Amino acid sequence: MAKRFPNHPQLRGGFAPLRMECDAPDLEIEGEVPGDLAGTFFRNGPNPQYAPRGDHHWFGGDGMLHAFQIEGGRVSYRNRWVRTVKWKLEHDAGESLFNVFDPRDTDPRAMGVKEDGLANTNVVWHAGKLLALEEGHAPFEVDPDTLDSIGPWTFGDKLVGPMTAHPKIDAETGEMLFFGYNADGNISEHMSFHVVDRDGRLIRSETFLAPYAAMVHDFMVTRDHVIFPIMPLTGSMERAMKGLPVFAWEPEKPTCIGIMPRHGSVADIRWFHGDPAYVFHPMNAHSNGDVVTCDVCEFEQAPLFPLADGRPGDPAKATPRLTRWTFDLSRNTDDFKHERLHDIPCEFPRLDERRTGLDYRYGYFACDSRNDSGTPVGAFNGIGRVDHHSGRIEVYDVGAGCATNEPIFVPRSADAPEGVGYLLANVHDGGRNAGHLVILDAENVAAGPLATAYLDHRVPFGFHGNWKPANEARRP
Ligand SMILES: [Fe+2]
Question: Which domain does 280 fall in, by range?
Fold first, then answer.
């Protein structure tokens, strides 16, 4: 028997899990879906199947995929949970058996089970495979047409250890680059770095030690460099065994940014140091000779996690803002320039990914343009575009009672200039307790949607999504 979910802020409103899977063809549309938009917008996010064991954390829910298939001016929708080992065992039991953040609380029926993660953070299309990602485990392959679960994918048994949920796909080479943290299978400073070629073959794997064990959510790649941000949201199993948090904000430690020549090796990583801060997501980075520029959404203090002694963090400091780090590799120092680009609170940054790792003009994000205090980290009122040339920000406010998160950019055509295309995002309408998809003209964000596709149910606030063009098919 499924128990009632507890009354927890990350299980209410737009965070509340959806307890069904469905296919919804031909959604009601307001406006006009651009005729040249053909493909599928996949999104992933935590959607716990059952009421949690112990304390709930937003990051601990089972992955649910949402697919908006767009073609010929129509939009169809499908959602499915990813059938992980955890999901299947709990489905059979009719209740939660795992406590993701406190392994001591595992139900005896799940003790010793080799699980394959939550698959709840991102969903990426590369080399003919759709991969649901969560940073503690290998990717989980899903059928892009049916959303049926296929299973863990380790690149032909070559990947050992976890893969970040934020790989970078180089538009010039077609390569997918990624890293893993806790790469030895423990909470540790062990890191890995991998490259998969355009055909999906794992062609490079290296390991190295970070300065300390931390939650390393994302990284950056340029044409010439790979950038690993180690920031003091630290991990400690020793702390956890004392009943304190596994992951905690520990500002006594500095920010350490490792920069590796992309065509060198991990032995060439040079470490730079700065004040404690946290970044879940960079927007982009690029290299110009010895100068490496990184644009990131930086928090003064990591949100969603407590201090090392278990006390809560300061929510006033847990606001993300677009920040630029500039590293001059010709100088013989370990510092870097740090500048705030804008004051608007913003997260879930994206770009026209054809410019990944290259100098670029436009970035996109979810933002709190009303500067409402107390906006949950996962929910924002606006979708924004920044023009780095003019410094100008344009925002579409999704409206009273509505909230949104990450927008993705889809180019109008493969050879369209940078920034010419569409932004797609989910919006949760608290008044209807249901979701809608908005399609914006990326060159005129403030004008509001070109088209809105309405669902009859909620798409819970999730994390990340990506686009698969209609003319690309799955490769076995
Ligand atoms: Fe993320």
Answer: 9-469
Along the 476 residues of the chain, how does pLDDT read in single tens digits?
Answer: 899 999 999 999 999 999 999 999 999 999 999 999 999 999 999 999 999 998 898 999 999 999 999 999 999 999 999 999 999 999 999 999 999 878 788 999 999 999 999 999 999 999 999 999 999 999 999 999 999 999 999 999 999 999 999 999 999 999 999 999 999 999 999 999 999 999 999 999 999 999 999 999 999 999 999 999 999 999 999 998 898 999 999 999 999 999 999 999 999 999 999 999 999 999 999 999 999 999 999 999 999 899 999 999 988 888 999 999 999 999 999 999 999 999 999 999 999 999 999 999 999 999 998 876 455 567 899 999 999 999 999 999 999 999 999 999 999 999 999 999 999 999 999 999 999 999 999 999 999 999 999 999 999 999 999 999 999 999 98
* Residue 328 within a domain: yes
Residue 172 belongs to domain with CATH number: 2.120.10.30
Angle at alpha carbon of residue 361, lines to 368 and 280, rounded to 5°: 45
111 CB contacts (<8 Å, ≥6 apart)? none
Q: Ligand 1 centroid vs 167 CA: distance in angstroms?
A: 10
In a domain, 463, yes or no: yes
For residue 364, report the distance from its CA to the centre of ligand 1, in Å.
15
3 is a domain residue: no
Q: For the chain, what is the domain count?
A: 1
Report if residue 231 sits inside a domain: yes
Taking the C-alpha atoms of residue 120 and residue 257, their distance in angstroms, rounded to an integer, is 27
For ligand 1, the distance from its centroid to the CA atom of residue 293, given in whole angstroms, is: 20
- Residue 314 DSSP symbol: -
Cβ(441)–Cβ(447) below 8 Å: yes
Q: How far does residue 73's CA lie from ligand 1's centre (Å)?
A: 30
Strand 270-274, strand 382-387: pairing: unpaired
Measured over all CA atoms, what is the biggest interatomic distance in the chain, rounded to whole angstroms? 63
CA–centroid distance, 176 to ligand 1, in Å, is: 17
Q: Separation of 218 CA from ligand 1 center, angstroms?
A: 7
- 214 CA distance to ligand 1 centroid (A)? 15
Q: Tell me, in angstroms, the distance from the centre of ligand 1 to residue 137's CA.
A: 15
